[in-house]
Amino acid sequence: MLGRRGLIVGTLFAASLLAQPAAQAQSAADSYPSKPIRIIVPFAAGGSVDAIARVLAERMQAHWGQPVLVESRPGASTQIGTAVLASSPPDGYTVMIAVSNHTTNPILRKELPYDTLKDFQPIGLIARTPIVAYANPKFPPNDLKELKEFSKTHPEPINFGSAGAGSMTHLTAELFKLDSKIDMQHIVYKGGTPALMDVIAGHIPMTFATVGQALQNYRAGQVKPLGISSERRYASVPDIPTFKEQGFDVVTTEWFGMLAPAGTPRPIVDKLNGEIRRIIALPGLGDRLTAIELVSSTPEELGDFIKSEMDKLSPVVRQIGLAGSQ
């Protein structure tokens, strides 16, 4: 009888020990956030990722009553900012806005200071947008078909910028380069904004960027669009012809999602995911993020999406000869 009683007590004690981490995680979530939150942007300030992060930060801060800070950590095709996230405490107080580089860096680079799948906890998708080929207004071609004709009479490579090696803006350019057979040379920048500024200044003739990143510059006549990578004409810029309607088989989409360090307690993950969904559903938010399509997902859906993007983009990166090149 004593043996049986001891077994019951031991079982109950073990169960209580197992329940403690879950209870502690729930307790942390109940009081979350109780201090400032940091949103890492792995690009230079001023681009689409920065704009999304600042809108989220503003709304999160207003709702939760805690400071939400946007921290720019550009460089190495998002590797620098991503490494900062990977080494941060898994407590929900450091998150990052990830884009397509997150899925191409493992293919592009021989070594990374983190594991793309194991070191991060997906929170949720936020938005997506197609890519536009923007040019300096003085650059002779006015669309992609004219660009191809221009290249036939100008044997030197046509320089272009992007948000960085392996970014969706870069891959879109490389896919267009393959399809069009135009000799083009990638000029590497630490983000899409510096590349755009050099196009406006006339230092390079063109760049590939998200719609919103250069929308104001386009409307001001500082750049001209040659084509857009959406399947059909994009609602916010219906006058820009698609790559496909100009005869080039290129359709791409940049995505934006929030990540936290691996090991972030599930109740906090759910709280962050719920906050993203709440913000995305707010009326008028699209006016602040012009030309960006707002979306949402569960953490699991973002995790599955990241894996599928890695599988889809691996052959593309290998086809253009960039696998393991950095």
Automatic annotation (TrEMBL):
Keywords, alphabetical: Signal
Keyword Signal (UniProt): yes
Signal peptide range: 1-25
Protein family membership: Belongs to the UPF0065 (bug) family.
The protein's name in its UniProt record: Tripartite tricarboxylate transporter substrate binding protein
Organism of this sequence: Parapusillimonas granuli
Upper classification of the organism: Bacteria, Pseudomonadati, Pseudomonadota, Betaproteobacteria, Burkholderiales
